[in-house]
Amino acid sequence: MEITAITREQATTSNWSGGSTTEFYIYPPQSSYSQRDFTIRISSATVDVESSEFTLLPGYQRLITPLNNQLYLSFKETADTYLLKPYEVCYFDGAYHTFSEGKATDFNVMVRQGMKVNYSVLTSSSQLNPLEHSFLYVPNLPFDPSAKAQIGNLQIQPDTLYVLSACTESIPLFLEDAAVTTLFVNISS
């Protein structure tokens, strides 16, 4: 079992038309968001303007959840609308013209069409069963650092993405006496 921690300081931050985005993970490692040659990308973005339009990403599926505040999403192609509260998730086609209302910080997962994404919000201790590509994200929310909050043998830190290697045994997540919300993502082909 291997767990790699990626903090915001180790990640790459850039601007987009509605705020900034921090890329925590991209796969394969030599791929590029701008070249659209990646298979998986995990990021956290700020939506700093009241109304914005997301970048078109044909060939990709997207998952988005606000981490704070509400986010209202609408799609030109389907006329569907969603009012997302923190940690509620929306899956959508990256080729859709996507519009948002509301200022928020969000968590994003982008995968090539055809991949499967399973998203869970975890607030209590559990056993994680990593698949082909598995991740645990701890948002930048205040919690008592002396509380017992760890994954495997690592103390959990806020605003950090943990990359979990696929393995046959489960990985313990301890959130005892720690008011910590974590996001667990399993991705498979």
From TrEMBL:
SUPFAM superfamilies: RmlC-like cupins. Transmembrane segments: none annotated. Gene3D superfamilies: Jelly Rolls. This is HutD-family protein.
